[in-house]
Amino acid sequence: MEKSSKKMRIPVLSALTAAVILAAGAPMAYAQAQAVTTSEQVQSTTLGLPDFTGIVAKTEDGVVNIRTTEAVQVRSPAMGPGSDPYDMFRWFFGPDFMPPGMTPQRPHGGNNAPQAQERTVPRGVGSGFIISADGYILTNNHVVADSNGIFVTLSNGKEYPAKIIGTDERTDVALIKIEAKDLKPMVIGDSKQLKKGQWVLAIGSPFGLESTVTAGIVSAINRETGDYLPFIQTDVAVNPGNSGGPLINLNGEVVGVNSQIISRSGGFMGISLAIPIDEAMNVVEQLKTDGKVTRGRIGVQITPVADDVATALGLKDSKGALVSSVEEGGPAAKAGIQSGDVILKFNGRSIDQMTDLPRIVGSTKPGQSSTLEIWRKGKLQTVKINVEEMPSGNPVAAGKDQKDAPAASSTDAFGLKVTAVPEADLKRLGVESAVQVVDVGPPANQAGLQPGDLILRVNDKDVGTPEQYAKMVASLDKSKAAALLVLRAGQSQWILITPSK
């Protein structure tokens, strides 16, 4: 999407970009046309390379160009020199020069204060594709966001005004509609069938050049960028104006929505990202039905399972999502989920990496009873949980008041002095038992422990009183790192420390 042909509109990601994207709903039941051709049928007889001409001929009529407008404030001539872009014209033609389409604004009530005026100007261009014969079009949210006019041009040159049916900023998906009939929808494919190395095409309007075709291969699937959306990575040339256009496989099916590029220069550098069509269509169904997206939540905050933490907890690998905090009164708290639990499956679906969990939970209908498989204290457990609707609240932080706490213990093998936690704090945090750190020395300070931290668990054993904690630390193998479950500012994390000998 472009404000001009010189500026990038497609979002440019950095390696540290982080965001949480959740998809919801069920796929739309769109009529599926017959596949255009097969991978074998598009092989060139001369070079052994794909011939895309047949695919392009069958699909490009389903791709549209989208231009948008926006309203901007333009100051009146009375505002003085340098106040608006028409000052130069007034310098040549006199102070009474008025741009075409604008009328002088008279002061109200005799007030000579200058009046601001509003004009509609071009905002940018993007792409989209037809998903139903009656005029529904899928594109990116950033293509149509903040616009006051949307205009769709078909491949035959006809232009139609469009209205927004619904948008979802988190997945960058928008559903718009034009009043037209007998359109040619594109075939919706299955992005789950994509594999690395497969040929794919992009059709769109880079820099406003309508119906431009580029080709490349799938470079990676389920590419995480911190946005909780499993992007398709390709080396298909995508530039400003391609946003919202289709990514097409060799069967002529849409498998993705071109959305972003990764670039250090602001231009295409061989890495483009597309939203999987399965995720996009899940969102489209809800936008068409409700005009918005409803997502599920269970009320936990999570972190990845590090390899060393997985080893300390007795897990076979580092898959899953580690619960760092549980929202007080939320679905997870009601189900008995605890900080330090590792969620391995949700409704039978494996959580291979942390970002799988919010995506799967988000796509679960609020009110639905679900099943969690968790790893706790060296054992697998199954927990029933009722999914609620987003958004979630924030956990309560630990209290700092120590005036009623017993005296601190002596320094242990971790270099820590601990004390008991007031019962009121334990209850407020939803913690059954813990000890609180009051002084930190080596090796604990080198591992990141801080005064005020609550220690909930040592390896697979819950921490009770300071005396019980001291016995647990004294019995540890001094040649191995121990895993401490630490609660800090409402967030829990596993910290590895090797006891001093």
Count of distinct strands: 28
Q: Outline the biggest β-sheet.
A: 6 strands, antiparallel, barrel
**Which outline best applies?**
elongated
Task: Count helical runs.
Answer: 10
Spatial strand order of the main sheet:
9-10-11-14-13-12
Q: What percentage of the residues does DSSP assign to strands (E)?
A: 25-35%
Straight-line distance between termini: 62 Å
Mean pLDDT metric: 80
- State the secondary-structure class: alpha+beta
Q: In angstroms, what is the radius of gyration?
A: 29 Å
Helix content: 10-25%
Weakly predicted, low-confidence segments: 1-9, 12-35, 42-46, 392-406
Describe it for me?
- By secondary structure, the protein is α+β, with helices and mostly antiparallel strands.
- The protein is built from 10 helices and 28 strands.
- It has helices at 53-59, 87-93, 141-144, 277-290, 307-313, 331-335, 356-362, 423-429, 444-447, 466-474; strands at 12-13, 63-75, 116-130, 136-139, 149-153, 159-168, 173-178, 187-188, 199-204, 212-223, 231-234, 246-248, 253-262, 272-276, 296-297, 300-304, 321-326, 342-346, 349-350, 369-376, 379-386, 388-389, 416-420, 435-440, 454-458, 461-462, 482-488, 491-497.
- The strands form 5 sheets. It has a 6-stranded antiparallel barrel with strand order 9-10-11-14-13-12. Strands 2-3-4-7-6-5 form a 6-stranded antiparallel beta barrel. Strands 16, 17, 18, 19, 20 and 21 form a 6-stranded antiparallel beta sheet that branches.
- Strand 5 (149-153) and strand 6 form a beta hairpin.
- It is elongated, with a radius of gyration of 29 Å.
Features:
disordered N terminus, alpha+beta, 10 helices, 28 strands, 6-stranded antiparallel beta barrel, 6-stranded antiparallel barrel, 501 residues, single chain
